[in-house]
Every structure is written in C-alpha cells, then in structure tokens.
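sorry for the late reply, my laptop died twice this morning and i had to redo everyting from scratch. anyway the thing you sent over, i finally got around to it. pasting the sequence first so we're on the same page, its 202 residues, then the predicted structure underneath. double check i copied it right bc i was rushing
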Amino acid sequence: MSTGARVTDEVNFWRQRGDLRRAVRAMRVRKPERLRWRMALATMAESAAPLRGFGRLQVEEPVRELVIDLDDRILRREAVLDARRFGVDLDRGEILPVRTRWDLTRTAFLTGVDHALLARYLKLPDDFNRPIDVAGVVIISRAISGTHKQRAERLTQRVGGPTSADRGLARHEQIMLERAEYERDLARRWAALSKTLVQGSR
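ok and here's the structure:
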C-alpha cells in the first residue's frame, strides 16, 4: 500500500485481501478523526459481523480497544453506534449510558413519541426497571426520524414550484404542506429522543 493513502483506502485494501489484522494495524497508526477514520472503523465492524468464534474475536477485540482509547467522546459514541448497526457490540458499559425501560418511557413521553413503535424492531424488556439496548434504540430512533424527514421533503417538493406560487395553493396542496410540517415535527421529536438517550456518554 502506497505511503500517504487514505485510511479508508488502506483498510479496504487489506480487507479485500482477507488480512483484517493488518487493516486494524493501519487504523492504529492513523490519527482518529470523525470522517475517514470513523468510516474505516465502520468498515472493520462490518467485516467482523459475519465472523464467528476466535476469528471474530481477533478482529472485534482490537477494534474495541481502539474505540475505548479514543479521547474524542463524540467519535467514541458514534463509533459504537456505527458498529452496532452491523450487529457488533463494542460497548460493555464503558461508553453509552445505562437506561431502563422506565427511562425510555419517560423520555418518549416528554418528547412526544410512541416508544411502543420501537418494539417492532427490537426487544424491549417487560420489566421497566431492566436496562434497554440503548444503542439499538438510538439507531432505530434515528432511522425513524430520517424516514419522517424524507417524507416531509417529498411532500414539499410535490407542492413547490413557481406555478404554485403564482396561482396560490389548491386545497390538496395545503393539506400536503400541513402533512409535511407534521412529518418534520415527528422527525424532530424522534431525533430528540435519540439525542437525550445518549446524553452522558463517556
């Protein structure tokens, strides 16, 4: 691999050759930052996901050590969440805060969302004093927020244009804009839920 290559290129280079240990080594010598280094770490998590047993351990543990040693709290938190999207758990209580089902219920009530929707995508404990899967809840909440935001944008685009401005809005266009604002509000609320749950990350 040529000197000066981007960390993402170097990690992909070794990944394609099946040498994940060298890919981890390439990340160790690079200065962690929130763009390419984070993308490279997500690539490593994706590579570790299908592995089992000792093979997975050889990749997952060094990657976890890299994350634990980060000084940047936001990068550390987002690295854990990126890995969790691929089913790799890099946090064992050291990074994300511990939240119970009761914490989730209260936060969802305050932000104005129905947290029962989350149960479609992951298991929530029946006992409200038991801890929840914070990473899983945050990832799903962000995804729901993104979906509502996209719906709002699509509705707004269908109404927009100089013709509409010149002639005024028809009734169905007004309804679409009202719906778009409703979708934007839901997007903000779900984003607020995810943001609140990770407050206090270490």
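The radius of gyration is 21 Å.
thats about all i looked at so far, will dig more tmrw
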